[in-house]
């Protein structure tokens, strides 16, 4: 049995860039590092990421500035990006300790638009699922309809996301088919009870109650809590009620509430573990922390984080790892033949591929080149078999540093992907090509 820790962050960044922002406190890194208990996963869900046309197009060729900033912080701690998915301003990124790579399978992302009747992605959700040490995990980052009076639209958004999110993994088609579900984001629920007529607090009254630490009285007006109790939205999940002040709405570059809006707990993290026994092991989920980070003031929202501990049975999936025969050296001037070994009864996926990566890669998008395997559709064999594949001479690798091959099993563009093997590091040389016969005197 494995015990894993997940650290989840949600933040509406109001189209701001991280620039010189220090994110150590947001990820609680200094405390974790001091106590020698860095989490196994960092999961960061952002809303209102700057998605102007230039930024959105450039994201196809390089990491979003927020992902890049997080990479710079987490790379020295040996984390890599297992998955990042963006739908306009919604961004979900999963960082994982390198040692867990072999045990993550069937990573898949889907997104649902709910803005303008489902035509626009300014609102909606990005969801990513994966298998890890024998259990299934689903992560949902969402941004629901805004404004006090839009409660019904928020509830409809939730229902739309729940019904329209469909994965291709068998037995985990829907969000709630998973062993563990974490749903977070700018859910936009406000302190306003539409059943109570004029019995609602003004922005000034709410601010005064916050100063007096009367949060227990305020939470009684929380639309999300009421919707959960009534079974109208998010009732499948649970939440530890916030013990921190409302995270919206602030004057940018300050910690003062903007009195043009009623302060509210818009930014939330909810969770669920299935009542299930796997290999005589009951699933267990513990919420270690749930807090806001008021020192960050670039947005009108304050970020919120929560750390969880879960358990999962080890199902020995490491036996499925693809093995590579050692490559002595890669020659940039010619084709390179690579050999890898398929385990017994291995089924090659319809879009399996092998990528060439720097040895210390920090994300699966950092390949220099790739080739699709040529054995898709072959019948699995009961014994190991060695397969050869040629990489084109057009793949020109830097002459500095070492490189590795990664084998990915994939079902296609929107299907799931699993990293099943990594080679030993190899160097690169560039030698002059052999002369052709017609050039010899």
Automatic annotation (TrEMBL):
GO terms for molecular function: phosphatidylinositol-4,5-bisphosphate 5-phosphatase activity. Residues 2-316 form the Inositol polyphosphate-related phosphatase domain. It comes from the Eukaryota. GO terms for cellular component: cytoplasm; plasma membrane; ruffle. Gene3D superfamilies: 2.60.40.2840, Endonuclease/exonuclease/phosphatase. SUPFAM superfamilies: DNase I-like. Belongs to the inositol 1,4,5-trisphosphate 5-phosphatase type II family. It comes from Chironomus riparius. PANTHER family: INOSITOL 5-PHOSPHATASE, LD06095P. It holds the Pfam family SKICH. This is Inositol polyphosphate-related phosphatase domain-containing protein. GO terms for biological process: phosphatidylinositol dephosphorylation. InterPro entries: Endo/exonu/phosph_ase_sf, IP5, IPPc, SKICH.
């Amino acid at each position: 049995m494995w015990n894993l820790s997940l650290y989840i962050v949600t933040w509406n960044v109001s189209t701001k860039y991280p620039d010189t922002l220090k994110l150590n406190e947001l990820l609680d890194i200094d405390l974790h590092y001091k106590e020698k208990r860095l989490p196994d996963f960092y999961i960061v869900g952002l809303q209102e990421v700057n998605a102007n046309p230039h930024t959105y197009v450039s994201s196809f060729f390089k990491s979003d500035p927020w992902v890049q900033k997080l990479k710079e912080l987490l790379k020295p701690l040996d984390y890599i990006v297992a998955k990042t998915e963006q739908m306009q301003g919604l961004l979900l990124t999963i960082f994982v300790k390198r040692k867990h790579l072999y045990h993550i399978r069937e990573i898949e992302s889907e997104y649902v638009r709910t803005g303008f009747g489902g035509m626009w992605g300014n609102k909606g959700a990005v969801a990513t699922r994966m298998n890890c040490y024998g259990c299934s995990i689903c992560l949902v980052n969402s941004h629901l309809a805004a404004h006090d009076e839009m409660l019904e639209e928020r509830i409809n958004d939730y229902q739309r996301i729940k019904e329209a999110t469909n994965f291709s993994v068998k037995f985990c088609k829907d969000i709630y088919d998973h062993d563990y579900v974490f749903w977070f984001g700018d859910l936009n629920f406000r302190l306003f009870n539409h059943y109570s007529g004029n019995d609602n607090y003004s922005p000034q009254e709410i601010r005064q109650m916050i100063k007096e630490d009367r949060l227990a009285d305020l939470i009684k007006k929380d639309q999300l809590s009421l919707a959960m109790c009534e079974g109208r939205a998010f009732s499948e999940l649970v939440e530890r009620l916030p013990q921190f002040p409302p995270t919206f709405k602030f004057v940018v570059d300050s910690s003062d509430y903007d009195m043009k809006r009623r302060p509210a707990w818009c930014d939330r993290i909810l969770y669920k573990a299935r009542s299930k026994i796997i290999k005589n092991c009951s699933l267990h989920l513990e919420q270690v922390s749930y807090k806001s980070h008021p020192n960050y003031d670039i947005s009108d929202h304050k970020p919120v984080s929560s750390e969880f501990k879960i358990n999962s049975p080890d199902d020995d999936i490491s036996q499925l790892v693809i093995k590579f025969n050692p490559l002595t050296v890669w020659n940039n001037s010619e084709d390179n033949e690579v050999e890898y070994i398929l385990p017994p009864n291995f089924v090659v996926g319809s879009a399996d591929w092998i990528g060439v990566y720097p040895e210390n890669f920090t994300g699966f998008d950092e390949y220099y080149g790739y080739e699709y395997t040529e054995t898709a559709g072959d019948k699995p064999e009961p014994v190991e078999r060695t397969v050869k594949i040629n990489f084109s001479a057009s793949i020109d690798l830097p002459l500095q540093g070492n490189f590795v091959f990664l084998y990915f099993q994939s079902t296609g563009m929107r299907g799931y992907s699993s990293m099943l093997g990594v080679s030993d590091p190899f160097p690169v040389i560039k030698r002059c090509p052999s002369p052709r016969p017609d050039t010899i005197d």
